[in-house]
């Protein structure tokens, strides 16, 4: 359903947005910080019942030196009563970023905070976790590529009443101006800075700084606390424990690049620094929402991921049915392939066990890549040579992928389907904790998903909600007028894929109460202009049934989609 301007104003459901022009009411920080001292805006994140992380960048007005100031937090927007304050000093050693933990706070409260330095003031609002909660509402986002378009989904989120924003990764992208999205960025005047692919600490800092300069991003961060995990592009495409597909020898040592990327990430994101004795790669952590739900944010890239397969490397090996069977048995299903590692699996099991023991109705997992089983439908009869030549201009592995699709193997070997033994270990730990009712939140694909989750024996493990990109285009977008037919084919061949939404940008609006939930797949009409209208591509209900989580009552689906659902 598309929400028109008239319906929006009449119903009060959403505010029509133009973040690049009118801006948000929360952009006071941008107006007051005209000197540029707080030109990156403000952010908050990693909330607890008694504390929250506050972030800004206090850039010096002149050259070099240190910058000092004050951070204050109040329970009112006019700051009549200051309930917490702290002085800060920052400098070039951390690129003038400021990150403080405001503590001693009350649970379940909305707070307003501000940073002050000289005449400059930057403000935002945040929330602590509740001790008791009857409902919760989250905005689920992923894949915000600066050159591909305006962050209109962020602006729309800034106008909503959310408890938190959950960012599932690819918050930044590492490519240079000649890489992914470069042509679009040149047309829009949103080219990456620096111009080259980022490799060094200074490079990653500059890229984070560019993304934080976006007014839509600033509006979202100023409005809501962020719960963030990374995927691969915060370091380099298809990263794993020992390297990345997009890291070459002439770019230096991978460990140096990874350290630089993580240092910049912890400097620029409102996340808590690792506890003593814990590596920077181990970002996984959990949140308890007042007896209503637990949220475990997992890390599947840098701590224990085995190297992923690449289509172009696989296809030449699979020359016969026997070769396919051998590859599946000896390579794909190798029990030694890991995504999380034992330490994180132990941690996840303990989080889920505590949640079950507390009788919390819902258990959420913030996850990077698709967890459901999805077999690639055979595209060979549907794609012509002319199609392939056109698609290769944007997707260099499309020819290998089309050949791969005819083999009856997983659609995405960079996802959990490329690590089936690791996925089964994940399910076994959840089962050991008594949790067969997961809601897995997933990014990465730039498309919407509603999937059933089942273990190797076919036992239900819950559902998966996949969000589309903020601006990054989905792979079916390359198919253009064939995208919907491909999506129907995908669902017909994969009964666990209950719904698959293509060709849109936006986020998931997830609402949960004690009995039921609803996932609204929210879209923005345009990302090539700061003017847009919001809509809903689908709404799908959630309920506890038979010891697990199940979908109910989809709305907004066409006839063919309802039949396949």
Summarize the structure in words.
The chain is of the alpha+beta class. The chain contains 15 helices and 25 strands. The model is unreliable at 1-17 and 21-35 (pLDDT under 50). The chain folds into two domains: 5-16 and 132-564, Purple Acid Phosphatase, chain A, domain 2, CATH 3.60.21; 17-131, Immunoglobulin-like, CATH 2.60.40.380. The strands form five sheets. The chain has a ten-stranded mixed beta sheet with strand order 6-3-2-11-10-9-21-22-24-25. A seven-stranded mixed beta sheet has the order 14-15-16-17-19-18-20.
Q: What distinguishing features does this structure have?
A:
Purple Acid Phosphatase, chain A, domain 2, 25% helix, alpha+beta, globular, 2 domains, 7-stranded mixed beta sheet, 565 residues, Immunoglobulin-like
């Amino acid at each position: 359903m598309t929400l028109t301007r008239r319906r929006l104003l009449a119903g009060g459901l959403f505010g029509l947005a133009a973040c690049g022009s009118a801006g948000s009411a929360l952009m006071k920080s941008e107006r007051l910080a005209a000197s540029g001292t707080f030109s990156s805006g403000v952010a908050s994140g990693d909330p607890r019942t008694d504390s929250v992380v506050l972030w800004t960048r206090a850039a010096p007005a002149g050259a070099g030196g240190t910058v000092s100031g004050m951070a204050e937090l109040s329970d009112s927007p006019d700051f009549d009563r200051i309930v917490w304050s702290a002085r800060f000093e920052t400098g070039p050693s951390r690129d003038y970023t400021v990150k403080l933990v405001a503590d001693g706070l009350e649970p379940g409260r909305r707070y307003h905070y501000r940073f002050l330095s000289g005449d400059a003031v930057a403000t935002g609002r945040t929330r602590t976790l509740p001790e008791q909660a009857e409902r919760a509402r989250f905005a689920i986002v992923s894949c915000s590529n600066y050159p591909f378009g305006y962050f209109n989904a962020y602006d729309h989120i800034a106008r909503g009443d959310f408890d938190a924003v959950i960012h599932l990764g690819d918050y930044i992208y590492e490519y240079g101006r000649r890489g992914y999205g470069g042509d679009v960025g040149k047309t829009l005047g949103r080219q990456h800075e620096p111009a080259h692919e980022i490799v060094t600490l200074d490079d990653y800092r500059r890229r984070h700084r560019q993304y934080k300069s976006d007014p839509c991003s600033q509006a979202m961060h100023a409005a809501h606390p962020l719960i963030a995990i990374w995927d691969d592009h915060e370091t380099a495409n298809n990263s794993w424990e020992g390297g990345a597909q997009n890291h070459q020898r002439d770019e230096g040592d991978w460990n140096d690049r990874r350290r630089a990327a993580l240092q910049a990430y912890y400097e620029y994101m409102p996340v808590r620094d690792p506890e003593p004795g814990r590596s920077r790669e181990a970002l996984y952590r959990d949140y308890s929402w007042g007896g209503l739900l637990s949220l475990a944010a997992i890390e599947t890239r840098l701590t224990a991921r085995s190297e992923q397969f690449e289509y172009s490397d696989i296809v030449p090996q699979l020359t016969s049915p026997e070769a396919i069977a051998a590859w599946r048995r000896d390579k794909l299903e190798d029990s030694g392939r890991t995504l999380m590692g034992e330490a994180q699996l132990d941690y996840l099991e303990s989080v889920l066990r505590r949640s079950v023991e507390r009788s919390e109705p819902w258990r959420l997992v913030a996850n990077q890549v698709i967890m459901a089983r999805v077999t690639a439908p055979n595209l060979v009869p549907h794609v012509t040579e002319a199609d392939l030549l056109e698609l290769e201009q944007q997707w260099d592995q499309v020819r290998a992928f089309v050949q791969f699709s005819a083999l009856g193997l997983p659609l995405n070997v960079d996802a959990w389907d490329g690590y089936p033994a690791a996925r089964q270990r994940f399910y076994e730990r959840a089962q050991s904790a008594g949790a067969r009712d997961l809601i897995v939140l997933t990014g990465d694909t730039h498309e919407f998903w509603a999937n059933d989750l089942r273990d190797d024996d076919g036992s239900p493990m819950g559902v998966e909600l996949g969000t589309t990109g903020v601006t990054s285009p989905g792979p079916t977008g390359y198919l253009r007028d064939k995208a919907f037919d491909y999506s129907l084919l995908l669902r017909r061949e994969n009964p666990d894929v209950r719904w698959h939404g293509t060709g849109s940008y936006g986020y998931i609006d997830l609402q949960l109460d004690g009995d039921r939930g609803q996932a609204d797949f929210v879209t923005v009409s345009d990302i090539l202009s700061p003017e847009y209208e919001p809509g809903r591509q689908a709404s799908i209900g959630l309920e506890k049934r038979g010891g697990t989580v199940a979908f109910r009552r989809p709305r907004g689906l066409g006839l063919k989609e309802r039949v396949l659902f």
